[in-house]
Amino acid sequence: MALNVPQVRTNTIRRAGSSSSIGNTIEHDNELAPVTPRSRRNSADSANPVPIAGPTSPALTRPTTQHRTDKTTIYGGKAHKAVLFDTRRLMEKSAYFNKMLSETPEPTAEQTTYEDADETSLAIYAAWIHGKKLRGPSDFHSTGHYLGLYVMAGKFGSEALMNDVIDLVRDYYAQGGLTAPPYRLQYIYTFTSEPNPMRKFLVSTAAWRSMYGGEGISDAMKEVLGDKTLAVDYMQALIVLGKDDSKDPRKGSHCSWHTHYDTKTCPFETSEPWQ
Ligand SMILES: [Zn+2]
Question: Which one, 76, 82, 132, 257, has the greatest CB density within 10 A?
Answer without folding.
Answer: 76
